[in-house]
Amino acid sequence: MLRITKRLKRPRDPIQLGKLIVDIATGDVKDKAPDDGKNPAAVALGRLGGLKGGKARATSLTPAQRQASARKAAKTRWKAAANLNMRMGVRRFTRLANAFSKKVENHAASVALFVMYHNFVRIHGQLRVTPRWRLA
After folding, report:
1. Looking at the whole model, is its pTM more than 0.90?
2. How far is CA 51 from CA 38, 47, 76, 82, in A?
3. Are 48 and 24 in contact (CB under 8 A)?
């Protein structure tokens, strides 16, 4: 989004614009944005309070807390990836598909079939074997 700074309005006429530039350069006219109620320190920093994330947060956490946070984030990513795989692999989860399950038994059987295929048949991209074979 384009951010427009509030300052003295510039004239369109080149002669008047030239005169305004000379006046600003000589100090006859102040070219300052009007006070918009923002904290000048926060504007200088770009945010109020200075450093709150990143390095400042990493130094305040113990190694155990950082490890727990990383594990939680990894679990969240794995769950999201598993949900995406399930939605893409089993079209019965989308109501618009022709194979939408009306009975819970049919839906459970479809999910079980997908999980069986996903773990025992499909060759994993990085592992180059099925996930179940890798665990054995």
Report:
1. no
2. 18, 9, 26, 35
3. no
